[in-house]
Amino acid sequence: MSKQPLTLYLAAPRGFCAGVDRAIKIVEMAIAKWGAPVYVRHEIVHNKYVVDSLREQGAVFVEELDECPDDRPVIFSAHGVPKSVPAAAQAREMVFVDATCPLVSKVHIEAERHSSNGLQMVMIGHAGHPETVGTMGQLPEGEVLLVETAEDVAHITPRDPQKLAFITQTTLSVDDTAGIVAALQERFPQIVGPHKEDICYATTNRQAAVKDIADRIDALLVIGAPNSSNSRRLVEVGRAAGCAYAQLIGRASEIDWRALDGIKAIGLTAGASAPEILINEVIEAFGERYDLTTEIVETAVENVEFKVPRVLRTPA
Fold first, then answer.
1. Sign, Cα dihedral of 300, 169, 126, 193
2. What does each C-alpha distance from 96 to 74, 88, 151, 207 come to in angstroms?
3. Given the DSSP bridges, would you call strands 144-147 and 96-98 parallel, antiparallel or unpaired?
């Protein structure tokens, strides 16, 4: 029986960003330098495949610092941590390495700078997400007001409406965030924004690539974890761009083939913490079922690279 023809539009950029790449390298280099086990506070990045492979190499993942022994190295995840966490590690004289993405650290520095200038912060982000928790934890309690939607803007009560600045989580929807920023600027005309958009280049690029393929496809699959903010945003961006069927999958085994019955063109992308091996696995799965034509749609070229901390570049 002949296979049905299918065109697969592969979005580029997709998958790993520089911050994720650096965070994974930090764990691998820490294990190479100090031996196993090396403790990691929170998932280093939001991807089960990546976490499981690092666990096999000797990483132990915990949620809180008090689950770590004093005499083993601990790594803080790419999402960033509140200031209290490295302070507690220092107090216990632990060896620790901060794998916070430099673009998240940039937001932390921004928040501190505005605060030192007497401005109260408004953070656009998702409550409970590790990056939001880490960023809000850079300043004393009450100094950062969180808004998740444009509607939330009406309900915040700043100390002084004339003395406000805003920052954003780096993995948000560019379009949704623009609406929240507009609401903030309407209610607080003097609010100070970032010099350059806080949403990181990788999030922006991956969303732009999805928008580019949306009108050519019958369905969109996004490879990523359910707790990955940037991956979930890609699904939302696809739907908003007119893609009736847009789904988040962890890997090829999660594809709902019945839902894809009769399609002629599918789009494929991956969140910033999904490795290329999972993307290839999905392409192979389609190749087994369809007479597949793959077309890469590249909307940007990424050549960003972040150095690992100096402590890992020196011998033990």
1. negative
2. 5, 11, 40, 34
3. unpaired
- Which alpha helices (H) appear in 58-101, and where do they start and end? 84-91
Split at pLDDT 50, 70, 90, the class of 285 is very high
Average pLDDT, the chain: 96
Q: For 129-139, what is the mean pLDDT?
A: 96
Phi, psi of 235 (to 5 degrees): -60, -45
- Tokens 């607080």 belong to residue: 188
Mean pLDDT (whole number) for 159-186:
95
Query: CA torsion 208→197→147→132, rounded to 10°?
Result: 90
pLDDT of residue 36: 97
Which residues are part of the catalytic machinery?
131
Q: Which residues contact 168 (CB under 8 A, 6 or more apart)?
A: 107, 123, 124, 125, 177, 194, 197, 198, 199
Q: Which two tokens stand for residue 271?
A: 């969140």
Contact 267, 276 (CB under 8 A): no
pLDDT for 195 equals 76
Q: pLDDT at position 2, please?
A: 85
Cα–Cα separations (whole angstroms), residue 303 to 32, 269, 299, 306, 307: 26, 18, 14, 10, 13
Chain Cα centroid distance, residue 284: 26
DSSP category for residue 27: H
Residue with tokens 């965070």: 23
Of 270 and 315, the one with more pLDDT: 270
User: 293 near 7, Cβ under 8 Å?
Assistant: yes
The model carries a pTM of 0.94
The CA distance from 146 to 188, in Å, is 15
Q: Would you say 176 and 198 are in contact if contact means Cβ atoms under 8 Å apart? A: no
Number of other CB atoms surrounding residue 104 within 10 Å: 22
Residues 6+ apart with CB under 8 A from 265: 6, 7, 8, 9, 216, 217, 218
Contact 98, 41 (CB under 8 A): no
Question: What are the backbone angles phi and psi of residue 158, rounded to the nearest 5°?
Answer: -70, 160
